[in-house]
Amino acid sequence: MANEGLIKEAITSYKISRAADKENDGQITFGGLDDTHFDGDSLVTLDNVSEEGFWEANIGALSVDGVNMKLEARTAILDTGTTVILAPSEDAKKIHAAIEGAKSDGHGGFTVPCMTTASVALTFGNTLFAIDPRDLAIEPVDADDPTGDCVSGIVADTEHTDGPRQWLVGDHSESSISCPHAYPICSLEMFSSRTPIFRLMRAIIKFHSPNLFRELFNLFGLLE
User: Fold this and answer.
1) How far apart, in Å, do the first and last CA atoms of the chain sit?
2) Quick check: 207 pLDDT over 70?
3) Nearest of 167, 157, 66, 72 to residue 118 by alpha carbon
4) Domains plus CATH for the chain?
5) What are the Cα distances from residue 176, in Å, to 73, 79, 128?
6) What angle do CA 145, 104, 76 make, to 5 degrees?
7) pTM
8) pLDDT by residue (tens digit) across 121-158?
């Protein structure tokens, strides 16, 4: 599209809404960024460290309520096609142990109080990106008790699908991605949203690729 002059830049950006807000106001923008939805001052550019074609960056720190969990040498695979955060088992246990009222279901899942105010944050490039508590407490375990326990948005990767030091960061906390070179060699750009509905802007993918839609399908896992 960019090569044919249909859009100004080879950028596709997404704003992914929160289901609980019932706004249904997700947005896709071809050829640029809608700067009404993010804070440009929080922009961070990172190297893509993946050797497998993922959008992956080093995590500087992981914290709960401002306390560093001392989980070092971790990376985050940023995946708009995943709705939760999949963390190494021991990491998930340590994070939830620091959240008051959190419980394990014994099978890799966790619950947190639906009214939790716990702030789980990931740091990239010395910039802290906090997960909105509403995105940590996904949905009530009992639909008739919305102030009881909720399913946690952080799940243990019991099979080490993404490696013992890799976090798979999905829509509930995901930040922006920009790729200025040919896929999969790229840099990642992350920044905070301007609006309270979207704590973090979601996926912004910038390609210098002749087949934008094939790259998008690959990103969302729609192609083999």
Assistant:
1) 23
2) no
3) 66
4) 11-219 (2.40.70.10)
5) 21, 10, 14
6) 105
7) 0.74
8) 999 888 888 888 988 998 999 999 999 999 999 999 98
